[in-house]
């Protein structure tokens, strides 16, 4: 089957969870024998490192000021910014030449740019329409824009032949939408660590790893879970904070107010290469998931589970991974006080983990995306 997928970020060098999920779907689809063509339409301000082929479909420089207008949302209004630009008719022409069996949208934001062609073009209207939902977008958006996001998401669900949900809760939400099609649940996952690899240690000393993107709920969870200073940690241990969430933390007045003390307890690493992340996971004393809100499921949870290290998580981090709560070394807290106690115990060795790779193989991408690959096969039949 030929699948054309559209998203609003490149995946050549996947860093945040959305990029990793799309890259994993593309890889698994190709390994299953499908022709999977992914086209990103994105801002180079947010993603300056797309491949040459990806940069070909980036938002033109002249439109970036409009796209990044502080009175608008980049994702919600990207279709408005591009509606009259010749980039889109060109892409529709390329899509027609490709003659896909299915057209898949990662998130709903780009759908309005192609909706009319998918409905009326004699070649494109034969393609199955797939909405690959990374979460319930309208539930996470600023209330000022919520109605607009709800309408967009509802229109795509009603037009789709298939909706991909990341968890059962999201699937139930989409199933209640008017005109909802078949829904497949394909949870988030990660790639299993190489058992033969021994990555170098990026940090000296004992540390608990906290990683996340610049998604605002990641910072919210950090402050709710750890407070202004993570002074509950045992002596000579730190929180290693990796990913784009680092900038949200270190530029916050709460961090800067106690900069000297935070320098003792926090190792801010920023966005790190894949090899560095592997080293951080391998050498961490514990993996902490201070997630207190948000939707969908979290790739960092799968990553933490597959590390086989002690995992200390706030309960919302286990959304979609509830069956893992009974595994060895998985410790779930219902409030920040309990999380800090559990994390301190993990850092001192009072609690540990006996998980084995075979205990958590079901959280790797091949297993998590297997239901989607099966549904692709049924669409192609």
TrEMBL record:
SUPFAM superfamilies: UDP-Glycosyltransferase/glycogen phosphorylase
Gene3D superfamilies documented for this protein: Glycogen Phosphorylase B (3.40.50.2000)
Domain Glycosyltransferase subfamily 4-like N-terminal, first and last residues per copy: 17-189
Cross-referenced Pfam families: Glyco_transf_4
InterPro entries (UniProt xref): Glyco_trans_4-like_N (IPR028098)
Name listed for the protein in its UniProt record: Glycosyltransferase subfamily 4-like N-terminal domain-containing protein
Species of origin: Thioclava nitratireducens
């Amino acid at each position: 089957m030929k699948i054309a997928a559209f998203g609003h970020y490149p995946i050549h060098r996947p860093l945040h969870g959305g990029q990793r999920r799309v890259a994993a779907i593309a890889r698994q689809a190709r390994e299953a024998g499908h022709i999977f063509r992914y086209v990103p339409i994105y801002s180079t301000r947010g993603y300056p490192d797309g491949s040459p082929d990806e940069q070909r479909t980036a938002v033109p420089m002249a439109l970036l000021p409009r796209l990044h207008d502080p009175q608008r949302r980049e994702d919600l209004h990207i279709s408005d910014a591009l509606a009259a630009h010749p980039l889109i008719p060109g892409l529709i022409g390329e899509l027609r030449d490709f003659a896909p069996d299915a057209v898949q949208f990662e998130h709903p934001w780009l759908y309005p740019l192609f909706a009319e062609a998918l409905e009326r073009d004699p070649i494109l209207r034969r393609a199955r329409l797939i909405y690959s939902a990374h979460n319930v977008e309208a539930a996470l958006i600023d209330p000022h824009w919520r109605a607009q996001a709800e309408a967009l998401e509802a229109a795509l669900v009603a037009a789709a032949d298939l909706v991909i949900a990341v968890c059962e809760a999201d699937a139930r939400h989409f199933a209640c939408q008017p005109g909802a099609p078949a829904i497949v649940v394909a949870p988030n996952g990660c790639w299993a660590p190489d058992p033969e690899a021994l990555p170098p240690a990026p940090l000296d000393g004992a540390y608990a790893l906290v990683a996340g993107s610049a998604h605002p709920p990641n910072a919210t969870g950090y402050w709710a879970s750890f407070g202004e200073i993570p002074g509950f940690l045992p002596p000579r241990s730190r929180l290693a904070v990796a990913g784009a969430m680092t900038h949200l933390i270190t530029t916050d007045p709460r961090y800067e107010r106690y900069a000297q003390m935070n320098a003792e307890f926090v190792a801010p690493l920023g966005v790190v290469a894949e090899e560095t992340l592997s080293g951080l996971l391998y050498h961490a004393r514990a993996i902490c998931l201070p997630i207190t809100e948000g939707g969908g499921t979290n790739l960092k949870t799968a990553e933490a589970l597959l590390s086989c290290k002690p995992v200390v998580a706030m309960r919302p981090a286990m959304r979609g991974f509830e069956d893992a709560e009974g595994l060895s070394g998985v410790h779930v807290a219902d409030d920040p006080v309990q999380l800090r106690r559990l994390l301190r115990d993990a850092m001192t060795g009072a609690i540990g983990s006996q998980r084995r790779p075979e205990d958590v193989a079901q959280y790797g991408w091949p297993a998590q995306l297997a239901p989607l690959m099966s549904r692709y096969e049924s669409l192609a039949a």
